[in-house]
Write a structure and sequence with these properties.
The chain is of the alpha/beta class and 250 residues long. The protein is built from eleven helices and nine strands. The mean pLDDT is 95. The structure holds nicotinamide-adenine-dinucleotide and zinc ion. Zinc ion binds next to loops.
Amino acid sequence: MLGHASKILVRSRFAIAFTGAGISAESGVPTFRGSDGLWKRYRPEELATPEAFKRNPNLVWEFYKWRMRKILEARPNPAHYALAELERLGILKAVITQNVDDLHREAGSKNIVELHGNIFRVKCTSCNYKENLKESGRVKGFVESRDLPKCPKCGSLLRPDVVWFGEPLPREALDKAFRLAEKADVVIVVGTSGLVYPAAYIPYIVKEHGGKVIEVNVERSGITPIADVFLRGKAGEILPELTELVRGLR
Ligand code: NAD
Ligand code: ZN
């Protein structure tokens, strides 16, 4: 199976990756649907919504600051590094991710499309103010503060610049992802349940355009029925092996 997948990749003209929360699980970032995905007595799906934020911004910010702290402690794992290496080798042309944790960037991937935003960015609920807290060097103080964050431009409440359940995806990122998927002749799908739309269309678009689907997951997903190769196992173990095989074949 691994051998077959590595041959598909080496022969490819335009390979892309499509990743979900599962690729970061081995970095210690909890998935939403996983068993350790619980936070207090709330389910993340109930907090990551515009309604929850309207009802109780303090609770939602408490949840997001907890997630930011967890993600700040996390390092990329061998799966993130393997995808960055495949890009350096010229095989992988882009990583489309549903993750908000910035770990692909930390691992050295360059062409990244973030479909669900980035947890280290905030945006104003009233005006067009946006800030990347990592770039402005404010992230430490921000996560430690117990106050609700306010916009420095207009004083309104700030919110995380992530896509909540029930919200549309950022237009530019989605367009770019769909264009990449139409062009791709291979997609490596890693650690996603394939249940969150429209992101989950990506592998289907590749397939419809005649491309191949290689999937890495610890269990079957909504993508598995269209996978040409299903590699069952941990992303942090499978992807480095796959990359090693690809290197050997070139
Ligand atoms: P998801 O729908 O992508 O499901 C996680 C998938 O990863 C499952 O199919 C699971 O079988 C698989 N998986 C778990 N551990 C794995 C491993 N070690 N190797 C390979 N596969 C593994 O993600 P979700 O948790 O249901 O989250 C839904 C949405 O919430 C995401 O699309 C994202 O926007 C957001 N989210 C992001 C992060 C993050 O940035 N790291 C974390 C949680 C949730
Ligand atoms: Zn503002």
